[in-house]
């Protein structure tokens, strides 16, 4: 499953922490549907999250 790192949590301070990785349920044109640590799903703009590089392969 794709993961992203939060770069700006304005408006989602209680749901996401800057610098932490989160799983992406679905990727759309300008947004991600992201699952936070509590298992809640949120639609967030891609400008506030960066993809995690898959360097473990």
Coarse structural class? mainly beta
Largest sheet: 5 strands, antiparallel
Average pLDDT, all residues: 93
Rg calc: 11 Å
In the predicted model, the low-confidence regions spanning at least 5 consecutive residues are: none
Helical region count?
0
Q: Into which percentage range does the β-strand content fall?
A: 35-45%
Query: In percent, how helical is the residue content?
Result: under 10%
Main sheet strand line-up: 4-3-2-1-5
Number of strands: 5
What is the succession of H and E elements?
A: EEEEE
Query: What coarse outline follows from CA principal-axis ratios?
Result: globular
Distance between the termini: 14 Å
What would your notes on this structure say?
The chain has 57 residues and is mainly β. 0% of the residues lie in helices and 42% in strands. It has no helices and five strands. It has strands at residues 3-6, 21-27, 31-35, 41-45, 49-51. A five-stranded antiparallel beta sheet has the order 4-3-2-1-5, with no helix packed on it. The radius of gyration is 11 Å and the shape is globular. The model has no long low-confidence stretch (mean pLDDT 93).
């Amino acid at each position: 499953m794709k993961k992203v790192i939060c770069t700006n949590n304005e408006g989602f301070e209680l749901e996401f922490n800057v610098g932490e990785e989160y799983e992406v349920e679905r990727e759309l044109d300008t947004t991600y549907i992201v699952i936070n640590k509590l298992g809640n799903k949120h639609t967030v703009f891609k400008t506030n999250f960066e993809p995690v590089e898959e360097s473990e392969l």
